[in-house]
Amino acid sequence: xxxxxxxxxxxxxxxxxxxxxxxxxxxxxxxxxxxxxxxxxxxxxxxxxxxxxxxxxxxxxxxxxxxxxxxxxxxxxxxxxxxxxxxxxxxxxxxxxxxxxxxxxxxxxxxxxxxxxxxxxxxxxxxxxxxxxxxxxxxxxxxxxxxxxxxxxxxxxxxxxxxxxxxxxxxxxxxxxxxxxxxxxxxxxxxxxxxxxxxxxxxxxxxxxxxxxxxxxxxxxxxxxxxxxxxxxxxxxxxxxxxxxxxxxxxxxxxxxxxxxxxxxxxxxxxxxxxxxxxxxxxxxxxxxxxxxxxxxxxxxxxxxxxxxxxxxxxxxxxxxxxxxxxxxxxxxxxxxxxxxxxxxxxxxxxxxxxxxxxxxxxxxxxxxxxxxxxxxxxxxxxxxxxxxxxxxxxxxxxxxxxxxxxxxxxxxxxxxxxxxxxxxxxxxxxxxxxxxxxxxxxxxxxxxxxxxxxxxxxxxxxx
Length: 464
Ligand code: UGA
Description:
single chain; 6-stranded parallel β-sheet; Rossmann fold; binds uridine-5'-diphosphate-glucuronic acid; alpha/beta
């Protein structure tokens, strides 16, 4: 290693960085590394993606990222390529950030992309360098890939290997990358750890905990974190099922629990549950992996976590029927289809799933999402996508808030009163003040709150 690192260990020259995969993780990591002052090349095998990124166009919505992308394309610190040959001859540190989606028809993660990226990289590296995996992977992957690299690399180059999971949240990706709450590195060689310390010097100087550990722990930290978050959400949503049955206020319950610092209030928001490209597939991949290890009972509770989560969607559909009557021909306004606000991501979105199920039950579904309409319409083209919340509620028998964008949380009854056919509302994210809406004559239900249906209500309101 000594020969190749000398050129930047003297701190006069920074390591050159490549990032393989330009999805949420990779594109953000590449732009943030450029922001930290490094020269960066982002690689993707998708030429269209590379063309648009090179023009400074981000193929997804992520606050602050477009500005960073444009800034560093113009500083010249950030560029994009499809050529492994180019990065293999150029970069000192290669981050792998390609996807590990759920396999179709199975719980396990699809490792095709990570394996292919690692192999291509190993075959094309022509200078001493370090490979750092960032993708979320089943435990045991890093060790396997480290061996794959050793078997396939060119004989005269030395390649260090590390695993460095990423904890960024969509919607906060830039902040989470530039100011992470911790850095976790699975690594076996001191020289490789030193390279990571050089790359993350700014965060380390800011007192970010830097946890250097073995490969297995680093892989497990990531899946354990997501499994814990999913469990926390399903925990409060399980209590929603109780308060919906016996009465009680799920928000007050969560607030009171959250004052106990051992529990904490974050990720205790009861609602239609978790979705997205990470939590659902990660809890399933973890179950698949422990089964392979003969430990299926260990993570069995995660199947309950998954089921509780999916039952929340059923609950919204049932509530819609309770409030509006048989769904055939009913006009339903859906506010929000992304899996969470400040994102245009509709992967495994509870909101989009509910919208599609209402449509299948015969409802006429109007959808408005500030950023998600385009992605949702690719998946479910037959819903009516409209350009504003007010347009979506026009003549509606029922309004359902499914993603808590602030423009929906800020809605007041007076905004909608004159537009709807019937004053029926389901707050599936627990963000509205129920008393205000009731006082304005709305029949409003929220997840985690007992709902007593008022059959005459819809028609009375329609007449008033
Ligand atoms: C999640 C983790 O939070 C990140 O730390 C991790 O890096 C990322 O996955 C990943 O593995 O790449 P993300 O998928 O962006 O991040 O979304 P979250 O903010 O975790 O939200 C996940 C889902 O939980 C959303 O559908 C959200 O609406 C739901 N949620 C969240 C609740 O239903 N209740 C809550 O209290 C919090």
